[in-house]
Amino acid sequence: MTENLQFDSQGRLRHFLTIEGLRRQTLLEILDTAKSFISVGQREIKKVPLARGKTVVNLFFEASTRTRTTFEIAAKRLSADVINLNIATSSANKGETLLDTVRNLEAMHTDLFVVRHNRSGAAHLIAAHVPAHVHIINAGDGAHAHPTQAMLDAFTIREHKGSFDKLKVAIVGDIQHSRVARSQIHALNTLGVAEVRVIAPKTLLPTAVERLGVVPYTDMKAGLDGVDVVIMLRLQLERMRGAFLPSEQEYFNLYGLTPEKLGYAKKDAIVMHPGPMNRGLEIDSIVADGPQSVILPQVTNGIAVRMAIMALILGGSPNESRSRAPRASE
Amino acid sequence: MSLLIKGGHLVDPANRINGARDLYIDTDGFIVGVGRAPTGFKPKRTLDASGKVVCPGLIDLRARLREPGLEYKATLESELKAAVAAGITTLCCPPDTDPVIDTPAMTQMIQSRAWRFGMSFVHPLGALTKDLKGELLADMEALDEAGCVAFTNALAPITDTLVMRRAMEYAASFDLLVLLHSEDPWLRGVGCVHEGEVGMRLGLPGIPEAAETVAVARDLALIDQTRVRAHFCGLSSARAVQMVAEAQRRGLPVSADVTAHQLHLTEHDIGYFNTQCHVQPPLRSKRDREALRRALKNGVIGAICSDHQPHQPDAKLAPFSDSEPGISALETLLPLTLRLVHEKVLTLPEAIALVTSRPADILGLESGRLNVGATADICIFDLKQRWTLTEDQIVSRGHNTPFLGQEFEGRVGYTLVGGHIVYEAAARPKLRRAHNQ
Questions:
Q1: A95 CB contacts (<8 Å, ≥6 apart)?
Q2: How many CA atoms are closer than 13 Å to the CA of A166, on its beta-carbon side?
């Protein structure tokens, strides 16, 4: 399996598995396409026929409501037929392997699988074993990637801040276990953000995290100083085995985003959160519901961004253009 | 059948031979002459080894044969065929079979079944603790009597330090060799890759270098205490090598080996979730790999082993952390060792010693050398022959290897066990029986 798995033999985007390795132009095309889809959700008839006749299977091996629903709405707004496969009733629980599950669904002529799995690399594995006409979108795999979330975050940042190149962005919380953070870091760096910071105690920062192109901070005040965007991450208590933190209270005291701590950032800084939020643990309700919060617009934007990505990989971009991988000469 | 191996380049590091010599083997399968024919010797067959290297048959310190209990992965017969095709004439099988090798009956069963196939010699490694549970000591003396050449808990950790101390003390009472896979299970946790740049980028749970060094430190303290003869298996980190070197300088009776793949691959070979690179201990950094190579050169590490772990295909068709660790590695042991020669890391005699006489010395076996009077376990290979590892070339039942599609230089032509030709590349895949006539 290689980076090129995401592209077909003509260099077109075939799967959407990770931001890593995608060019800036591809990301901008996704953002621009998403922008053109925003209006679809505001119409009375919220549908375009770009994926009519296509079958999309939401294959969620890990619980999710928000992401699955936004993918479902996105696919339906593109006029695709959507099936949601619930892990609780899936044969995977009867011992069937991941690939066998996919092969059975593929035999039902699925065009696109939206895959969420609690193991890093699951979407890559599936993408490496499906036939050429089947597409995969990674809706979150282990601690590896959540590329559509990163794109909707980038979309939201652009909507509020205009361009990327002068921005300082801080990502706060459980970087160690966060697929969202990894994808955000790749997206923001590719889009040319001036500085990406990560803020967490060392137990929640991966070893050698600076190799991702970020500046690590363990102190909230220093880390938030002068930033334009604050992205709070959910504390993934379910993924934490062992002693990562002394207590939730201590975490909130040190890293919970309160109005006071938000005051270290620029006055017009926006606050983001991929959800679901733990109020009073990683974010104070006053901030979450406050004027700088763009958390609900993130959710709205998520539908347009997912529509854009689905349309691009299914070959139905409204601009009839398709992303291409960089060629040696480019 | 008496045999003359003629015109070959003989490499016998134990006897400091590195040059053209003919080799004479009598009808009982013993070497009766090196360079000079014994009086009246008339060979029934002559093997033309001109242009080829003739060396002792390879000795592999760790190769899973999967039998009994895991025959869906491989069998003694399938893996012994693979071993002789790879020039391996003696191998040790770890006790993590099902049932575990913790009784004399199991030891004898494996030996007698292996003997029946008449290919490589198989030496079982006895369990250090019953059922590898790390609680009660196995009957080591009885297992030794039955034919176990050393004792190990394989990859199962002995978490209770007192049990480890007692196991070492007991083994030391009878001068038994203990093989250690040193990894702290708590620091390993659910890790499946080296805790470094690649694992961090892929979001895979990491195993820090400290998982190895903490355990090596603990084991060295206990070796110091008990004075057991101990051997560290599959070292993967520069720091652990340093610690073993220091212990050797202090005079502790410790040796170490490295797996062939650790000498060539690093964490970066995992690429995007290549499960064929899922191994235990994990592939580490380039710096670690260079330290392992230096340790071979300066003698701290005394053996290269395959750590052969054949798997059924679907063992690797899973998300990385759910895939089973291990490489089917018998057939790449010699080629990967020779690659170190081609890369000028080692001389040919140094490389051959690491897979013949030096592992024999670690185990206390007489094999691994071509003395007059020794059993004629011999590997004849072409150092220059280029070939590509493809699925249909693999004799092992397990095709799980990250080296598929790679070109190697150096290929086995003949393998002899006890004076019998048990593998002949020209007759591939025909394999003959040796010691059951």
A1: none
A2: 6
> Is the CB of A3 inside 8 Å of chain B's CB atoms?
yes
Strand partners of residue A168: A195
List the single residue in B206, B274, B317 with the smallest CB-CB distance to A207.
B206
Is the minimum CB–CB distance between B274 and chain A shorter than 8 Å? yes
Cα separation, A178 vs A185, whole angstroms: 11
CB A125 to CB B273 under 8 A? yes
Instruction: Answer whether B319 sits within 8 Å of A141, measured CB to CB.
Output: yes
Q: How many angstroms away from the CA of A183 is the closest CA of chain B?
A: 10
- The residues in A 103-132 lying below 8 A from B, measured between CB atoms, are 117, 119-122, 124-125, 129
Determine, for residues B202 and A211 on separate chains, whether the beta-carbon distance falls below 8 Å: no
Tokens 């309160």 belong to residue: A258
Average pLDDT per 10 consecutive residues for chain A, totaling 330 residues: 74 94 95 94 89 94 89 96 79 77 89 95 95 95 97 97 96 95 98 98 94 97 98 78 80 95 97 92 95 94 96 73 45
| Residue of B161, B290, B286, B318 lying closest to B226 (CA atoms) | B161
- Cβ distance A142 to B208 less than 8 Å, yes or no, reads no
pLDDT greater than 80 at residue B432: no
Are residues B203 and A145, on separate chains, in Cβ contact within 8 Å?
yes
A158 Cβ partners below 8 Å, 6+ apart?
A: A31, A164
Q: Is the ipTM of this complex over 0.95?
A: no
Instruction: Retrieve residue A153's tokens.
Output: 């975050």
CB A180 within 8 A of CB A19: no
Question: Bridge-partner residues for A216, per DSSP?
Answer: A198
- Render pLDDT for B219-252 as a digit per residue (tens, 0 to 9): 999 999 999 999 999 999 999 999 999 999 999 9
Q: What is the DSSP letter of B71?
A: T
pLDDT in tens, A200-231: 999 999 998 999 999 999 999 999 999 999 99
Cβ within 8 Å, pair B206-A125: no
pLDDT at A316: 57
A5-25 burial string, b = 16+ CB within 10 Å, else e? bbbbeeebbbbbbbbbbbeee
Rg (C-alpha) for chain A, rounded Å, is 19
Joined tokens for residue B48: 């033309």
Name, in order, each residue with C-beta under 8 angstroms of B189's C-beta and a sequence gap of 6 or more. A241, A242, B205, B207
Instruction: Select from B195, B208, B321 the Cβ nearest to the Cβ of A120.
Output: B321
Question: pTM here?
Answer: 0.93
Task: Copy the structure tokens of residue A293.
Answer: 């919060």
Contact list, B285 vs chain A (CB under 8 Å): none
In whole angstroms, give the CA distance from residue B336 to residue B408.
8
Which of B410, B306, B419, B422 shows the shortest CA–CA distance to B367? B419
**Amino acid found at A58:** N
Residue in B closest to A123 by C-alpha: B319
**Cβ neighbours of residue B370 under 8 Å, at least 6 residues apart?**
B10, B12, B14, B15, B17, B23, B31, B34, B54, B55, B56, B378
Q: Kindly list the residues from chain B whose CB atom is less than 8 angstroms away from the CB atom of residue A125.
A: 273, 317-319
CA distances from B210 to B175, B187, B218, B219, B307 (A): 30, 7, 12, 14, 22
Distance of CA B343 to the CA centre of its chain: 21
Cα gap A32→A50, rounded to integer Å: 16
Instruction: Look up residue A85 and give its two tokens.
Output: 């496969």
